[in-house]
Amino acid sequence: MQLPVRTLQDLVTLIRANPAKIKMATAGRGTAGHFAGEMLIAMAGIQPVVTHYQGGGPAIDAVVNGDSQWTVAPIAGRMSYVQSGKLKALAIAAHHD
Q1: Domain-by-domain residue ranges, the chain?
Q2: Please, which residues have CB within 8 angstroms of residue 72's CB and are 6 or more apart in sequence?
Q3: Chain mean position to CA 44
Q4: Cα–Cα distances in Å, from 51 out to 1, 29, 83, 97?
């Protein structure tokens, strides 16, 4: 299911309205994407279903195939999915010193 969202706030609003239907895929428990996703979940006060996969490839495949609807993942290696329309990038995080 491709989500009707254009921004991160749209995603948060959609999850609030449908928490059991909007699943987050992670590359596994304790990964950077898992922690970043959990941080977003805590900050936004949302409660999506979280599914842990065994690696970034299976997590991205889950989103592309519609088994999960969103993920937090490095953009490196994912741009071809974004450029082809299979994934939609809603935000980019960066660390500044």
Answers
A1: 8-84
A2: 24, 26, 33, 34, 36, 37, 40
A3: 14
A4: 16, 9, 25, 32
pLDDT per residue over 55-77, tens digit each?
999 999 999 999 999 999 988 88
Helix (H, G, I), strand (E, B) or coil at 73: coil
Note the pTM of the prediction, 2 decimals: 0.89
Q: What is the pLDDT of residues 13-49, one digit of tens each?
A: 999 999 999 999 999 999 999 999 999 999 999 999 9
Largest distance between two CA atoms of the chain: 38
Tokens of 29: 């428990």
8-84 CATH: 3.40.190.10
